[in-house]
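User: Um, what's this?
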Amino acid sequence: MSEELLKIADGLLAVSEGVRALAGKAHSCNCSKNQEEERGQKDEESGNEKSQEKQENAVTIEQVRAVMASKSQDGKTQQVKALIQKYGADKLSGVQPEKYADLLRDAKAL
């Protein structure tokens, strides 16, 4: 009977470890509070970095295109083309998405 109980306990341990892994908290049962706090701080820091990146990349190509089209219609076609080339492309779709915010700022300044 005790052998069966040990098998059940081992099974429950395996299930609990699987649940922890699915929850993104895969760690052994003997993690100390300091390790958990450090893990929480690292997760929070990476979350802050990700949210900052999202804010920087929040500018879409459609937003840039709208401003560029408006400037082009205002007779600034050559300056619009020069801006696109400044960001390493021959056309707007060739500009790297991480540069959209800077391009938008420069386009608005025309």
